[in-house]
Amino acid sequence: MNKQDVFKMGLTRQEVIKRVSQNLVNDYDDNYTKSTLNIFKDNIVTPFNIIIAFIGCALALVGAYINMLFIFIIVLNIAVGIIQELIAKSLVEKLSLLNVDKCTVIRDGKELIIDSNKIVVDDLLIIDANHQIICDGIVVAGEAEINEALLSGEYDPIIKKESDQVLSGSYVISGKIYVKVEHVGEENYAIKISKEAKKHKKISSVLMGSMNKILKIITIFILPAGLLLFIRSLYVEPRTLYDAVVSTSASIIGMLPIGVVLLITASLATGVIRLSKMKVLVQELHALESLSRVDLICLDKTGTLTEGVMSVEGLKIINREYDDNKIKNIMQSILGVSKENNATFKAMERYFDKKNDIDVYAITSFSSQRKWSSVSFNENETFYLGAPDVLVNDLKIDEYLKDSKRVILLASAKGVNKDSELLKNIEPIALISLDDPIRKEVKETMEYFKKQDVDIKVISGDNPITVSKIAQDSGIDNYDKYLDLSKISDDDLILNAKNYTIFGRANPNQKKLLIEEFKKTNTVAMTGDGVNDVLALKEADCSIAVAQGSDAAKSVSQLVLIESDFNDLPNVVNEGRRVVNNITKVASVYFVKTIYSALLTVLAILIGSAYPFTPIQVTLINFALVGIPTFAITFESNDEPISGDFISKTLGRAIPNALAIIIMICMIKMLVVMNLINLSSQQTLLYLIVASITLLTVYQISKPLNNFRKFLLSFSIVTFAVSLYTFKDIIDLQIPGVLDIILFIFVLIFGVYLIEPLHKVANYLIKKINKFLNK
Q: Where would a tag sit more exposed on the chain, N or C end, judged by fewer CB atoms within 10 A?
C-alpha cells in the first residue's frame, strides 16, 4: 500500500466530530488514587470517632466544656491521616503527568499532532521508533518491532506487519507503522488490566488489625457498660445530669485507647516524611509496617537488580587490518544513519558516538527475526551489525561470551545488500560486548536481606537462563534453581513454586499465582514496573513500584521508589521496624488505662460506687505522664527484627499494672470505710495511685535508661506536678492529711510489689489462651 492510499484512510473532520458526539474518544479517568472526598470520609467516619463525637456532644449539652479537651487528640489524629494521604495523592498525580503523551494522526489527508486523549475510534495513528502505542488497533501499513514488556513481561521484540493487532502500553523499537484505532479509553487492553487493580485491597497491618480487635471488644463492652453506668448514676444513686454525663464520659474515655491510635498514625507519618527525603514515596501509611514484617521479596530483573540501561563493556578486534580508531569511525558512520532506537543501539551510541552528516547508499533495519542490520555507504561494501552465530557460522566466541550478557558482531562483505538477504563471504571485524549493569549496591542489599532471613525470588518475563546469570552476579542464593514458566501449566507451577528461586517467561497471571502461593507461608513483598506486574502487586502483602515504570504499577503500589533504586528498601525496612517495635513497647502504657477503666466501670455498676474520675483528670495524666514520654520514645532508632505477637506483648505488660491499680483502689476504699482515711481525701489518693502506676509503667518501658529517657521521665513528672498545681481548681482535688499520705504510701508499696507475681500469672494465662486459640 503506497503512502497516498494510506493517507486516504484517515478520518475527515466530520467523522471525528461524529465519533466525539458518540463518546468514542480516548478520554478517560486515569487517576487511580483515592478521591479527596473518600480520604476525608475514611479518616473521619469511623466507629471510634463516632463514639468520641457522641461523648463530646453529651458533654457540650450539659456545659462540661473543660472536660472536652480530649477531643483535640482525636482531631489531631484525623488531621495527620488526612494530610499524609493528600500528600501521597498529590505526588502520585505528579508522577502520572510525566507520561502524558501526544500522538500523530492522519485527518483530512494531513498529519496532525494531537493530545492522546483526543484520539477517536478509527483514527489512523502514525507510530515510529521510541513511541508508545496509545490505543489498541490494527496495523494497516508498515512494519515495526514492538516491545510488549510492560504488558507481558517479555522483553524480546515482536515483529508487527499489516493486519497484525497491536496493544496499548507497548512501544515501537524500530520501524514505522500505521495503526487504525479499535479501542479507546477503558476498552483498551492496558486499562482493562488496570481496572482489575482498582479493586479495593484490604490493608495488611498487624498493628491496626490488633488495634481493631481490641477496639471491637471495647466497643461491644462500652455501649452496655456506659448505658448502665449512666442509668445508675442518674436514677439509682441519684446524681445530677451533669455529674452523670461527666462520670460516664470519663469511664468511656478511659476505656478507649485514644493515644495509641494517634501514636501509630503519627509514628508512621513521621516515617513517611523521613523516607520522602530519601526519595521513597509511601502511598499507604501501613506499607512501612508491612515491609518491616516481610520474609520473602519477589523481584523483577530489569530496573531492579540491573540499572535497566544497556552499556558497552568492551571491544575485541578480530580482523587485525582494523584498529580502534578505524572501528570507531565505522561505528560512528553506521550509528549516524541508523534509525534504530532500541537499548542496544543507544548503548553503542553512548560508547562510540555518531556522525550525522553521512550519506547512505543502502540500509536494512535491524529485525529480531533476522538478528542483524546492514548499511552500505557505497556500491562496493556493506557493513553488518548482528548476532555472531547468524552472521558467521564458524566464529569461535565461547570463551569471550562466558562472562558477557550480549555480544554484537561488526562484520563486512563485498557488494551492496538491497534485498535484506545476507551477502556471501562475510568477514568478521570486531566483537562488541554489552551488559545491563548490576546496580552498584545490589550485592550489599542482598546481603542485608540475607542477614535478616528474608528470602529472595526473581520473577521475570525474560529468559530464565539470563535471569539466573544476573541473579548469580547479584549475590542471590540458589540462582541455579530456575524454571521456564512458558513450558509448564498453572497446576505444575503451584506444585513447584517453593522449589525454585528464578522464574522466567512469566505472564501476568502466573506472577499473581506465584504471589498467592508464597503468601500461604510467608509475608510477601513484590517489586514491579509494568502493567504486567499490576495483578501481582495488588496480591502482595507489600507492593513496590519504580518511578520509571507504568502509571498503573505506580498507582496500585504502596511504595514508589522515586529514583527507581531497589537499594533504598533497607531504609524502608528499618523505618518500619522503628515504628512497630516502639509502638509495641509504648502501647502497654495506654492499655493500662483501658483495662483499669473497664474494671472500675464494672465495680461502679455492681457496688453502686461513682466512677472516681472526670475526663479532665484522665486527660491530664494522658498528656503529661503518658503522651510526652511515649511520643518521644517512638522517634528513637530501633531496627531489631520484629518478634512476638502485638496483643500478647502489650497486654502482658499492661494487665499486671492495671490489676495492681484496681487492688490499690479497693484498699483505699476499704480504709475510707474503716475511717482510717478521710472521705474528702479519697479521690485525690485514687488519682495519685493511677498517676504513680502510670509513671511506673512508663519507667518500665524506658529501661535501660539513658540520659534522654531520664530527661523525659523528669520532664513528665515536673509537667504533671506544675499542671496539677496550676489547674487544681479545675482538676478539683483536695490536699490529703499526713495520716492519709502515710497510709497511701503503704498501699502504693504493697501494690508495686504485687506487680511482679501478677505479671507471671498474666503471661501464663495469655500463653494458655493463645495456645487454645491457635488450636
A: C
Total-model pTM: 0.67
How many CA atoms are closer than 13 Å to the CA of 487, on its beta-carbon side? 7
**From the candidates 123, 136, 243, 300, which is the catalytic residue?**
300
**Cα gap 583→261, rounded to integer Å:** 10
* DSSP symbols for 31-47: --SPPHHHHHHHHH--H
Cell of 223: 455501649
Q: How confident is the model at residue 94 (pLDDT cuts 50, 70, 90)?
A: low
**Helix, strand, coil shares, percent, the chain, to 5:** 55, 15, 30
The DSSP symbol for 546 reads E
Q: What are residue 132's DSSP bridge partners?
A: 171
Please give the Cα distance from 524 to 112 (Å, whole number). Answer: 47
Residue 152 is given by DSSP the state H
Query: Who contacts 72 (Cβ-Cβ below 8 Å, separation ≥6)?
Result: none
Helix axes 47-61, 206-231, angle to 10 degrees: 30
Distance CA 609, CA 602 (A): 10
- Residues 466-507 pLDDT 10s: 788 888 888 899 999 999 888 888 889 998 888 999 998 887
Q: Is 300 a catalytic residue?
A: yes
Tell me the pairing of strands 406-414 and 559-561: unpaired
Grid cell 525470588 is found at: 457
CA–CA separation, 430 and 447 (whole Å): 38
Dist. CA 599–CA 670, nearest whole Å: 17
